[in-house]
Amino acid sequence: MDTLNNQVLExxxxxxxxxxxxxxxxxxxxxxxxxxxxxxxxxxxxYRAGCAARCAYCGLSNRRPGKYDRKSFxxxxxxxxxxxEIIGRIAxxxxxxxxxxxxxxxx
Length: 107
Description:
two-stranded antiparallel sheet; 21% strand; 4-stranded mixed β-sheet
């Protein structure tokens, strides 16, 4: 589990965000192929115990080897960020955000 100054970064105060969404909102640097634009912000609830489900298709499944904080939802980095900062960035970039998708884990 991610920590900040020994504080566990856990929902609801913190959410994981896809790398593409983090780039769109200015949390991470990067470029999109052929200047593509992302209009959906993908967020994921996160908890210390991880996900209890055993979904065969999912990288967060508890059947997958490794610690939860080292697992990836879909092969890219999903940084953990404060909910309040995410809300603020979305408000500043309303012209770019058309949809928000919040996924949950089985907790």
